[in-house]
Design a protein that fits this description.
The complex is a heterodimer of chains A (about 290) and B (about 325). Chain A contains twelve helices and two strands. Chain A has about 290 residues and is an all-alpha fold. Chain A has one domain: Orthogonal Bundle (ABC transporter involved in vitamin B12 uptake, BtuC). Chain A has a two-stranded antiparallel sheet. In chain A, a hairpin with a 4-residue loop joins strand 1 and strand 2. The longest helix of chain A has about 35 residues. The radius of gyration of chain A is 19 Å and the shape is globular. Chain B is mainly α and about 325 residues long. Chain B has a domain of about 210 residues. Helix content of chain B is about 75%, strand content about 0%. Chain B contains 15 helices and no strands. The longest helix of chain B has 27 residues. The radius of gyration of chain B is 21 Å and the shape is globular. The chains are: A mainly alpha (about 290), B mainly alpha (about 325).
């Protein structure tokens, strides 16, 4: 009985930690897709770039890990604006297929470029000493790093919730997601809003990428390997819904971990089966508006 | 009593579209010429022909009916595994019936998934097709006893075609075999897209609301063409299994679904011959650039995609048409 309880706690805990990564990376994709309807498959590439930026800054400049994450956030966010203005902005009115093709082209180029400069091998990453080992939470010990990750995730959720629900900028974004033309008629500069959201979303992806290195590893292939998961979070959660992205990340993270514990060979099968079932029942996602 | 509507103009229009143009002989002449010009590359050429067929099947649903899918490898893989398992488990090595069974299996999978999936649109449909293909891949991975799982399906041996033409070391027989199968299926595809049924598909792509309004059975039309396309993809997969005598999980992968989509976009959608141009350019580039380094190839194809989307949205064939129109007009 004790053992069963322990396994259940492990699954939930690891699932929660994994869900935080999925949420932090995917939430930006969800909002940008909800805002402009742009299918951006290159989102995973920003997360990958964030992971590399984090490690490069740590090794090159000797910056501590938390500060490196912040630098990666701003660096990738700033670079993403360049892409948004030069490339993405041309295709807002294009078909989904064109958007998919442009962004997948960017993914290929990013993977090739990072492989060229950093090599195909996974990054070597040393978490700082205070994040290593186990931490006692009263009834059980847990890996410190994952506890840290869950705390960062919760902080992000709180910050995003506040930003979205309680600030004027958040209200403008929600208005634009709901009805872009109406928002524009009211004088909201949706293009500028989108650039800002895009930068924020890409920055968050970079942060998630930096956090993910310790858990899932980081190599150039990350950009495409985990892309399907990010897309599932967005589609299952519902476009443009932060709450949806969180719930979907939670469901996916826990099911994925449960699958790995209980049925290691076939675990991945579950995720896709659940995804298909959920999308068949709710095509617009759990918290999306029905079209 | 009103006079019966005059349909002679419409009939003449269909007739005109259906007529063969001289330029349409080009790809076939090129395929035959390639056999004699590059005798060392026939095995590679066979794989190009297989991918052309696969891309052609995608063109039917994407270029004509406007169904965007990220999981077309599901049907290619279903066909490949059907043809492979037929030989590996049942000892059935006759190639033509093997192909037929591959096509029918994939068509059955396409029909069942199509009935369910084609009620959805946009991102939901993209995700559903993507998840379906990956789920099949995971299923094949788990069912190791039947599919060989991660190690691949071994022990495929295919009889001589018609009991006469044994495959040789260079795959020359299979080049002709693949070319003839491609030509036969191309004739069917061409017949379909120029038929009234094909016209209704274009109508669905352009304005689905209006097609509903004039009473066209939209869902049934979509499922029909999806099933046909899946069957064609399955035959391409069957050819793949027979010519390589080996099937791995890779036939069902997201990478393959993506590659065939890229080939079609490169060549140009909704024009049948886009598949020929796109698949050939993609595979030759892959072969040449990957020899230099895999990163070159990856960067190259990425750049090519970005440029295609930005400057040649109708694909390479569209680009050639535009150039032709420009220079054509310059003449008096």
């Amino acid at each position: 009985m004790d053992q069963l309880f322990n396994v259940a706690v492990s699954i939930l805990f690891d699932g929660l930690a994994y869900a935080m990564i999925l949420f932090i990376i995917s939430v930006g994709l969800s909002v940008t897709m909800g805002l402009m309807g742009f299918v951006n498959l290159a989102h995973g590439a920003f997360a990958m770039a964030g992971g590399y930026a984090t490690v490069s800054v740590m090794n090159g400049l000797g910056v501590p890990f938390p500060l490196a994450l912040v630098i990666a956030f701003f660096l990738v966010g700033a670079v993403s604006v360049l892409f948004e203005r030069v490339l993405y902005a041309r295709l807002y009115k294009a078909t989904e297929l064109d958007q998919v093709m442009l962004s997948i082209g960017l993914v290929f180029m990013a993977i090739a470029a990072f492989t060229f400069f950093y090599g195909p091998a996974p990054l070597t990453f040393q978490a700082p000493d205070y994040l290593k080992g186990q931490i006692d939470l009263g009834f059980r010990e847990f890996p410190t790093y994952r506890v840290f990750m869950i705390c960062v995730g919760l902080a992000m959720i709180a910050a995003l919730w506040f930003g979205f629900e309680r600030t004027s900028l958040g209200a403008q974004i929600r208005a634009a997601v709901d009805n872009r033309r109406m928002a524009q008629s009211l004088g909201i500069d949706v293009d500028r809003l989108f650039t800002l959201t895009f930068a924020l979303g890409s920055g968050l992806a970079a942060l998630g990428g930096g956090l993910a290195i310790e858990i899932v590893g980081m190599s150039p292939g990350f950009a495409i390997q985990y892309l399907v998961f990010f897309l599932i979070v967005v589609a299952v959660g519902g476009l443009g819904s932060i709450r949806g992205a969180f719930v979907a990340a939670l469901v996916l993270g826990i099911i994925d971990n449960a699958g790995k514990y209980l049925w290691p060979e076939g675990g991945a099968f579950f995720i896709y089966a659940v995804t298909i079932a959920l999308l068949l029942i709710k095509p617009a996602g759990l918290f999306g508006r029905q079209a | 009593m009103g006079a019966p509507p005059d349909i002679s103009a419409a009939a003449a229009f269909m007739e005109r579209r259906h007529r063969w143009r001289p330029a349409e002989a080009l790809p076939w002449l090129a395929a035959v010429a390639a056999f004699f010009l590059f005798p060392d590359y026939t095995a590679f050429g066979t794989q190009v022909l297989i991918m052309i067929l696969f891309a052609l099947s995608l063109d039917l649903i994407m270029g004509y009916a406007g169904i965007v899918t990220l999981g077309h490898a599901a049907y290619f893989g279903a066909g490949a595994y059907a043809a492979g398992m037929l030989s590996a488990h049942l000892g059935w090595g006759e190639p033509l019936t093997g192909l037929m069974i591959a096509g029918l299996t994939a068509a059955a999978v396409g029909f069942v998934s199509g009935v369910v999936l084609l009620r959805y649109h946009g991102l939901t449909l993209l995700m559903l097709t993507l998840a379906t293909a990956i789920m099949l891949q995971e299923l094949a991975n788990v069912q190791e006893e039947i599919t060989g799982g991660f190690d691949g399906l071994l022990g495929i041996s295919i009889d001589p075609i018609f009991g006469l033409f044994e495959n040789d070391l260079w795959g020359r027989t299979y080049y002709w075999y693949a070319l003839i199968v491609l030509f036969a299926l191309f004739l069917i595809a061409r017949r379909i897209v120029y038929s009234p049924f094909g016209q209704s598909l274009s109508g669905i792509r352009e304005n689905v609301g209006r097609m509903h309004a004039i009473g066209s059975p939209v869902h049934r039309r979509l499922v029909t063409v999806y099933t046909i396309s899946a069957g064609m993809a399955g035959i391409a997969g069957g050819l793949f299994a027979q010519s390589n005598a080996f099937v791995t999980l890779d036939v069902l992968s997201f990478a393959r679904s993506g590659a065939v989509l890229i080939m079609l976009i490169l060549g140009g959608t909704g024009r049948l011959y886009g598949a020929f141009v796109g698949a050939t350019v993609y595979m030759v580039l892959e072969d040449e650039l990957a020899k230099l380094s895999p990163e070159f190839w990856e960067f190259g194809i990425g750049l090519l995609l970005v440029l295609t989307v930005l400057f040649a949205r109708r694909g390479l064939l569209g680009l050639i048409e535009d150039l032709g129109a420009r220079f054509g007009k310059a003449k008096p």
